[in-house]
């Protein structure tokens, strides 16, 4: 299915606001996106006056895998251990709506042509919505990278933005996927180990607090996100249900020949409009609430990762201390142990500092984003509720006025 | 005080005007005494098609003009008598139907007598054309409510008893307000009695709510969960609608069984409505046989009206079924939505708890509260949708099935008629042969048989005509009622 999207021109349904700090030295956006059979090609456009770049404005075409590659490059880079790496954008997933469309195509003959057309329209709208969302996610990822004073200077980033040709990043093959999977397991085991190590004392209250907070927060937000998804899904189902009802009422109306006819037709129209409203409610909820929750779920996961890294550094530091002590008692290799310990100490310190900064940023970002989205959500819901009451009331008047 | 009565419709018997009895005495008691005086009761068999009005018996219209209550009694008497005679007497009751039913504006019939003001029955005019339309005949002078479901008994023998309250100004009832306790099988018993009396003559008897073994068992076992209360509520509402529909039917209202049902405090237990009884099985077998029969009867429809109506009903049925299915899906999804919203509200609350930024935390918990309220709202909406819309639709679907049943009976009647004709022919042939062969006694016998069959043919023909007429009448009533009934609740539901 082909679909083109002019992301730049229209207002992006982004649920996460990225504050570019008024810094226009590097501006990144996804100006266009094309969806082909299986993949989506994004056109990343950069405007910059930084000296690194050859031109001030240029654009390249990137695919999802290349975004993932970039993200991984950041994660694996030791230098950025003290920073929260913006979460990678999720894979564009059109499977669900593609399936539905297919089912509709083979569909049963009991639905009339109008119904079929309407359902098809709904599905197409859904597809388009998913498409827009995925573009927005990718864009936000890039924009956060560009906004971050440290991350934006990464060489890989530049390559990503500038290199005209295909980065020939193949999707991870099975071995790498498995490797990644194993690494995750190791990591979480490690984390568990570290935290349970009795010797490890958290020196800083701030971090202690943050840790507990984040853990709890992450799990709850994941919960909330799941449930919000379900709510949205039910809403959608409800909206879809109105289609056959409206069609049946319509056909009933055309059959009858008197007063009931107009009533039926009015009812059919009512349901049709209600459906559109419900659909809009569902998609608004989706955008404002679910997406936001989901994004912060991932972000909090990234924050957790940061904390983990710090903890790791702390553990290393402790270990280095112990090794130093041991070396001192044995009076061997004191030098190396010392320097190693110094290194660890420094690393730990710097990590802690940047982590602190990052976490504060995270919090303020989160608060402002929640605020913005919740406000918008409430306003939209209000608007829709008013519209539907008006609609119902009008229909009621019309129906009563009939006979 | 000849009331204004205008030409009441069809004359079926006497128009008596029950309501008018000032003394509100129990008509029946007085009637009984005068029973003897009534002339020949209408024999079932002689329902002349055209002669509907003269119920070939009983006080002819002439008497009817008398103001005297006594005369009314006479009229009633006749009816009483006839009612008791073998069931084939539906016609009788039609007249004085107190129940005011919305009148069919245009269609031919509607023997509705407008009760109230009628003081003296007027002479019946056979002309149907003069049927006046009781303008807005929506004066209900009988109201029925079904309420207070109570569980009686225990274990598997438990049942729900419903209180049936009747408020009426009809004088055929002994009191103006009374209530009795009935159980579900009583309702079913009533329906089967009415059906056996009226269905094959062409009246559309409103169908009773269906038996649901699963639901009842749950209630019996005593599970106090929401699904069983829902079930009881559903059933109660359905029973109420059923009774209301039944009393709206002018003919059925006159039925003594119905009156007994509404009035008497003890009712013989209707045993053969039990799902697993012998009678139940018999019914099922009958239904199956009917279905097969239907497929084999080929009737050439001479009357275009019937064909058209049948087609219309088929279409209507299909559409209603579709609509019903969609509405059920809607209700189900709405319930899901409300459940999901509740879950979300909970997790939003938790999220608010764990958030350490106070303002955000407060905002989130408020979000949770709002969501909870929304969830309640959705639930209510789901129930409203369900009760009004969906149940009404399923009622109509069943009604239409009843209508189809009536049409089927008509077909059967026709077939009997045809058969009778064929047999008559054969008998005639035999007679002719006999004549030729000159066997006197056989001739006599043949002649007898011929006479017998001729009578049967005539009977069959008359039956058929009768049924056709009745059906037309009924369909006319049905259509109008349907409109009003459907309209009001839907409008309310939307609000």
TrEMBL record, chain A:
Region named Disordered: 1-23
Record Pfam families: PX, Vps5
Biased composition, class Polar residues, residue ranges: 13-23
Domain called PX: residue spans: 20-168
GO cellular component terms, A-Z: cytosol; endosome
Annotated Basic and acidic residues bias: 1-12
One of the record's GO molecular function terms: phosphatidylinositol binding
CDD domains xref list: BAR_SNX5_6
Keyword Protein transport listed: yes
GO biological process: protein transport; retrograde transport, endosome to Golgi
Keywords assigned by UniProt, alphabetized: Protein transport, Transport
Family: Belongs to the sorting nexin family.
Record protein name field: Sorting nexin
Organism expressing this protein natively: Ursus maritimus (Polar bear)
Automatic annotation (TrEMBL), chain B:
Major subcellular location class: other
Family annotation (InterPro entries): AH/BAR_dom_sf, PX_dom, PX_dom_sf, SNX2_PX, Sorting_nexin_N, Vps5_C
Keywords in alphabetical order: Acetylation, Cell projection, Coiled coil, Endosome, Lipid-binding, Membrane, Phosphoprotein, Protein transport, Transport
GO cellular component: cytosol; early endosome membrane; lamellipodium; retromer complex
Amino acid composition bias (Low complexity), ranges on this chain: 27-50, 93-104
PROSITE patterns found in the cross-reference section: PX (PS50195)
Positions in coiled-coil regions: 436-470
Subcellular location: Cell projection, Lamellipodium; Early endosome membrane
Record-linked SUPFAM superfamilies: PX domain (SSF64268)
Single GO biological process annotation from the record: intracellular protein transport
Lineage top rank: taxon: Eukaryota
Location of region: Disordered: 1-104
Gene Ontology MF terms in the entry: phosphatidylinositol binding
Pfam family of the protein (one): Vps5
All copies of domain PX, residue ranges: 140-269
Membrane topology reported for the UniProt record: Peripheral membrane protein
Family: Belongs to the sorting nexin family.
PANTHER family: SORTING NEXIN, SORTING NEXIN-2
Biological role stated in the UniProt entry: Involved in several stages of intracellular trafficking. Interacts with membranes containing phosphatidylinositol 3-phosphate (PtdIns(3P)) or phosphatidylinositol 3,5-bisphosphate (PtdIns(3,5)P2). Acts in part as component of the retromer membrane-deforming SNX-BAR subcomplex. The SNX-BAR retromer mediates retrograde transport of cargo proteins from endosomes to the trans-Golgi network (TGN) and is involved in endosome-to-plasma membrane transport for cargo protein recycling.
Protein's UniProt name: Sorting nexin-2
Source species: Ursus maritimus (Polar bear)
């Amino acid at each position: 299915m082909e679909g083109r999207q002019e992301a730049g021109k229209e207002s992006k349904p982004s649920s996460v606001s990225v504050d570019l700090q008024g810094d226009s030295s590097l501006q990144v956006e996804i100006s266009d996106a094309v969806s082909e059979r299986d993949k989506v090609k994004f056109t990343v456009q950069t405007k910059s006056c930084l000296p690194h770049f050859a031109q001030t404005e240029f654009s390249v075409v990137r695919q999802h895998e290349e975004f993932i590659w970039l993200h991984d490059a950041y994660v694996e880079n030791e230098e950025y251990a003290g920073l929260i790496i913006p979460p990678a954008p999720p894979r564009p997933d059109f499977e669900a709506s593609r399936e539905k469309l297919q089912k509709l195509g083979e569909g049963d003959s009991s639905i009339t042509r109008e119904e079929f057309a309407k359902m098809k329209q709904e599905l197409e709208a859904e597809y388009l919505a998913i498409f827009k969302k995925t573009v927005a996610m990718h864009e936000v990822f890039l924009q956060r990278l560009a906004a971050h004073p440290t991350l934006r200077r990464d060489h890989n980033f530049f390559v990503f933005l500038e290199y005209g040709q295909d980065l020939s990043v193949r999707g991870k093959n099975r071995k790498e996927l498995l490797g990644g999977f194993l690494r995750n397991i190791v990591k979480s085991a490690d984390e568990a180990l570290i935290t349970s190590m009795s010797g490890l004392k958290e020196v800083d209250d701030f971090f202690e607090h943050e840790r507990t907070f984040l853990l709890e927060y992450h799990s709850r937000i994941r919960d909330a996100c799941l449930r919000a998804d379900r709510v949205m899904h039910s809403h959608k189902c409800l909206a879809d249900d109105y289609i056959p009802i409206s069609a049946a009422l319509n056909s009933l109306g055309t059959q009858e020949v008197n007063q009931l006819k107009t009533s039926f037709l009015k009812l059919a129209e009512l349901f049709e409009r209600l459906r559109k409203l419900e659909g809009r409610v569902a998609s608004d909820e989706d955008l404002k609430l679910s997406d936001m929750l989901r994004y912060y779920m991932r972000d909090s996961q990234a924050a957790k990762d940061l904390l983990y890294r710090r903890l790791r550094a702390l553990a290393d530091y402790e270990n280095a201390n112990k090794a130093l002590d041991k070396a001192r008692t044995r009076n061997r290799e004191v030098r190396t142990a010392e320097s190693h310990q110094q290194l660890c100490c420094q690393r730990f310190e710097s990590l802690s500092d940047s982590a602190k900064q990052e976490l504060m940023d995270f919090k303020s970002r989160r608060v402002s984003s929640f605020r913005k989205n919740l406000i918008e959500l409430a306003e939209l819901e209000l608007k829709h509720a008013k519209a539907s009451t008006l609609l119902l009331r009008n229909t009621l008047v019309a129906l009563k006025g009939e006979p | 005080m000849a009331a204004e009565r205008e030409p009441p419709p069809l004359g079926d018997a006497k128009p008596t005007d029950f309501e008018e009895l000032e003394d509100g005495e129990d008509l029946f008691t007085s009637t009984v005494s005068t029973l003897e005086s009534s002339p020949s009761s209408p024999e079932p068999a002689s329902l002349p098609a055209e002669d509907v009005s003269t119920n070939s018996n009983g006080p002819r219209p002439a008497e009817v003009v008398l103001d005297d209550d006594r005369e009314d009694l006479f009229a009633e008497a006749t009816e009483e008598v006839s009612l008791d005679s073998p069931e084939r007497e539906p016609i009788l009751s039609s007249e004085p139907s107190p129940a005011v039913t919305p009148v069919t504006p245009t269609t031919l019939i509607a023997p509705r007598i407008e009760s109230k003001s009628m003081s003296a029955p007027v002479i019946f005019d056979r002309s149907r054309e003069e049927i006046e339309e009781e303008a807005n005949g929506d004066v209900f002078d009988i109201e029925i409510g079904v309420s207070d479901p109570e569980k009686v008994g225990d274990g598997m023998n438990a049942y729900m008893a419903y209180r049936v309250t009747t408020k009426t100004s009809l004088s055929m009832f002994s009191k103006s307000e009374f209530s009795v306790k009935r159980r579900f099988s009583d309702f079913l018993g009533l329906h089967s009695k009415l059906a056996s009396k009226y269905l094959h003559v062409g009246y559309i008897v409103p169908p009773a709510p269906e038996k649901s073994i699963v639901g009842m068992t749950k209630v019996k076992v005593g599970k106090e969960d929401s699904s069983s209360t829902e079930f009881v509520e559903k059933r109660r509402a359905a029973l109420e609608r059923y009774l209301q529909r039944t009393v709206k039917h002018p003919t059925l209202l006159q039925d003594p069984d119905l009156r007994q049902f509404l009035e008497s405090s003890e009712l013989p237990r209707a045993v053969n409505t039990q799902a697993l009884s012998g009678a139940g099985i018999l019914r099922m077998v009958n239904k199956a046989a009917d279905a097969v029969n239907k497929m084999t009867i080929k009737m050439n429809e001479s009357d275009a009206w019937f064909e058209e109506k049948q087609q219309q009903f088929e279409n209507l049925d299909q559409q209603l079924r579709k609509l019903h299915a969609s509405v059920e899906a809607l209700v189900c999804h709405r319930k899901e939505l409300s459940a999901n919203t509740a879950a979300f509200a909970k997790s939003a609350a938790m999220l608010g708890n764990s958030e350490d930024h106070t303002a955000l935390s407060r905002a989130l918990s408020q979000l949770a509260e709002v969501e909870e309220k929304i969830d309640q709202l959705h639930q209510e909406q789901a129930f409203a949708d369900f009760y009004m819309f969906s149940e009404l639709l399923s009622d109509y679907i069943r009604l239409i099935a009843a209508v189809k049943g009536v049409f089927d009976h008509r077909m059967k009647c026709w077939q009997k008629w045809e058969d009778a004709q064929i047999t008559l022919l054969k008998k005639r042939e035999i007679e002719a042969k006999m004549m030729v062969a000159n066997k006197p006694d056989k001739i006599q016998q043949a002649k007898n048989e011929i006479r017998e069959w001729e009578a049967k043919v005539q009977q069959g023909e008359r039956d058929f005509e009768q049924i056709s007429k009745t059906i037309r009448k009924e369909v006319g009533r049905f259509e109008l009622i349907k409109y009003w009934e459907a309209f009001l609740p839907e409008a309310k539901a939307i609000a």
